[in-house]
Amino acid sequence: MKQLFFTLPSLLIALASALPAQAQDIKGNAQAGSHKNALCVGCHGIKGFHTAFPATYQVPKLSGQGAGYMSAALHAYKSGERKHPSMRTLASSLSEQDIADLAAYYESTGTGVALPPRADAGPTRAAELVAKGACASCHGENFSKPINPAYPRISGQHSDYLYEALKAYKTKDKSFVGRANPIMGGVVSQFSLAELKVLADYMGSLPGELQTLQPVRFK
Q: 63 CB contacts (<8 Å, ≥6 apart)?
C-alpha cells in the first residue's frame, strides 16, 4: 500500500495531463469570468448556503480556488465523471472559453493572504489519518499549495462539503452521487466513513485562502 502513495504525485499528474489539449490551451480572462458567473453566485455567492439534493451540505467556497482545479472540476461534471444533477446541467451549458474565464475569475478572488507553515501536525488522530492518506503529497504545504494546478486547495473548505466529496469517491452505482477519480478512490477506500469525517473536520478547521464572495445585492 505504501508504494501506492509514493507514486501518487506522478499518477495524478498523468491524470491531470489527460484533460483535452484544447481546454489546456485556452487562456482564461478573469474580468470576462466576472460577467459569466450569474448562475454560480445563486449558490456559491451566498454565505451559509446549503444544497438539499442529492445531499445536504454547504456548497464549497470557490473564491481563491486554483484555476486549474476549477477547470478540471467543471470538465468532470460536464463529462459525468462527477455525478451531480445541477452541476452536470450547468457545466454542460458552458463552452471551453466560459470554463477558462470562470476558473480565472474565481482564482483571482481569494483572500490573498499567504499562510505560514504549520508548526504542528494537528490532533493526534487527524495527523495519523493525514499521514496514512499522504494528503500533503498532492495538496502541498498547509494543504493549500497543491503540487499540480489541477488539484484543489482544501484548507478552510467547508468540512461538511469535504466529507460529502470524500464519500463520493467511495460511492458506486448511484445515479446522482459519485466521483470516478481512480486515485482518490484508492485513497478513500482505506478509510471508514467515521475516519473520513475526522479528516474533513480537520481540514475544514484549518485557516485557508478560500472564501465565499457574496455580492452586495445578497447582503
A: 106, 109, 110, 111, 210, 211, 212, 213
Of the candidates 43, 55, 36, the one whose C-alpha atom is nearest the C-alpha of residue 166 is: 55
CB atoms within 10 A of CB 142: 20
Q: Please give the Cα distance from 60 to 161 (Å, whole number).
A: 6
In DSSP terms, 83 is beta-bridged to: 178
pLDDT at 13: 46
What are the pLDDT digits (tens) for 156-168? Answer: 999 999 999 999 9
DSSP, res 113: P
Query: Looking at domain 2-14+26-218, what is its CATH homologous superfamily?
Result: Cytochrome c-like domain (1.10.760.10)
User: Are 115 and 154 in contact, with CB atoms under 8 Å apart?
Assistant: no
- 82 - beta bridge partners? 179
Does residue 197 sit in helix, strand or coil? helix
User: In this structure, what C-alpha cell is assigned to residue 142?
Assistant: 498547509
Residue 10 predicted with pLDDT over 60: no
For the chain, give every domain's residue range.
Answer: 2-14+26-218
pTM: 0.86
Q: Can you read off the three cell numbers belonging to residue 105?
A: 475569475
Q: Which of 95, 81, 76, 86 is nearest to 49 (CA)?
A: 86
Band of pLDDT at residue 3, cut at 50, 70 and 90: very low
